[in-house]
């Protein structure tokens, strides 16, 4: 593997940028009078949240066995994707690489930042062709590769992720939004080995906290300092920070959430196998299924008529709808409508 100097990958103006720092961030007080931030002295939520998210980071550091300085907290992992693009990709000059099909927001934030979006088409099993990856990386020289595993919307995990981190001359972001459902090992344990690695996780899926909008990035201290430099002050609100900090201490709750979802996944998979209009249910390591239908437009319309909202993926993935698992009564309703088609 090539020796990495992360600084060489960072946009020049970002290297020189000073982060916003509040005096409160780096000091402790016994009985402070806060007259520094133009807040109201009255009300329940009158104070700004901790911009450094210290308490949450310290708890996560123990949970994930990393240093608190290797953690960035975002307003959803969406915000972190945006920050990563902003740190490394020079508008107009640089490109990002993403799998195709994969999570659309990588391309969205790159486009907002005026970066080229290079797409690496997946093979028929939705895996990556290594030769194709090496060729396209070499030709396009993208700064950042977004590798999503398990991948949204296909549901499969990507094999041999180390190969891609090792053979990419830029930053590799492994998006593990659905990792808890997969039973696979997180790439967080590879952080010591690969200075160009960023791992994204979220509280929106297995943790059942999408409404709180909290996502996490794990990386080297150097990379985390850079994302902190470009983030907005107070980017995560106090209600969410408190709620998530509380939740982390309640491991039983998350275990229960995941077990419940996994039960429903296996129940739904069995039921789906009995439905006539289904051509194929693709293997999934996530909390959703990519399903190929005989007559996808009719199925989608029929589901909508019954107020069952799903995510149509065709024509990009021909004849396919992505459907995530719900509660038993919701899954039952889905199955009944599908049976009636
Ligand atoms: N990554 C992937 C792969 C996703 O599917 C999603 C949400 N659909 C996100 C990131 C964004 O998650 P968050 O709610 O943390 O912004």
UniProtKB/TrEMBL annotation:
It comes from the Bacteria. Residues 36-337 form the Aminotransferase class I/classII large domain. Pathway: Amino-acid biosynthesis; L-histidine biosynthesis; L-histidine from 5-phospho-alpha-D-ribose 1-diphosphate: step 7/9; Lipid metabolism. It catalyses: L-histidinol phosphate + 2-oxoglutarate = 3-(imidazol-4-yl)-2-oxopropyl phosphate + L-glutamate. SUPFAM superfamilies: PLP-dependent transferases. NCBIfam families: hisC. HAMAP family: HisC_aminotrans_2. This is Histidinol-phosphate aminotransferase. It comes from Chryseobacterium taihuense.
């Amino acid at each position: 593997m090539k020796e990495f100097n992360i600084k060489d990958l960072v946009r020049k103006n970002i290297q020189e940028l000073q982060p916003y720092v509040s005096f409160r961030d780096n000091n402790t007080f016994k009985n402070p009078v806060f007259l520094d931030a133009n807040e109201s002295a009255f009300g329940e939520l009158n104070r700004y949240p901790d911009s450094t998210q210290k308490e949450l980071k310290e708890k996560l550091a123990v949970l994930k066995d990393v240093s608190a300085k290797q953690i960035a907290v975002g307003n959803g992992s969406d915000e972190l994707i945006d920050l990563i693009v902003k740190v490394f990709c020079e508008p107009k000059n640089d490109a990002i690489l993403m799998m195709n099909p994969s999570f659309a927001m990588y391309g969205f934030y790159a486009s907002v930042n005026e970066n080229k979006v290079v797409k690496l088409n997946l093979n028929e099993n939705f895996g990556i062709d290594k030769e194709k990856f090496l060729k396209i990386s070499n030709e396009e020289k993208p700064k950042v590769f977004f590798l999503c595993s398990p991948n949204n919307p296909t549901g499969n995990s990507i094999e041999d992720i180390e190969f891609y981190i090792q053979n990419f001359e830029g930053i590799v972001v492994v998006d593990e939004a659905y990792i808890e459902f997969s039973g696979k090992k997180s790439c967080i344990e590879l952080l010591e080995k690969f200075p160009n690695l960023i791992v994204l996780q979220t509280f929106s899926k297995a943790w059942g906290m999408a409404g709180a909008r909290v996502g996490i990035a794990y990386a080297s201290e150097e990379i985390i300092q850079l994302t902190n430099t470009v983030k907005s002050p107070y980017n995560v609100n106090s209600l969410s920070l408190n709620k998530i900090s509380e939740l982390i201490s309640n491991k039983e709750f998350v275990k229960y959430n995941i077990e419940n979802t996994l039960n429903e996944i296996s129940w739904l998979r069995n039921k789906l196998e009995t439905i006539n209009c289904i051509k194929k249910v693709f293997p999934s390591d996530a909390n959703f299924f990519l399903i190929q239908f005989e007559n996808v437009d009719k199925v989608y319309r029929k589901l909508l008529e019954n107020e069952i909202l799903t995510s149509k993926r065709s024509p990009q993935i021909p004849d396919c709808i992505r459907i995530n698992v719900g509660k038993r009564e919701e899954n039952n309703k889905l199955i009944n409508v599908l049976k009636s088609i």
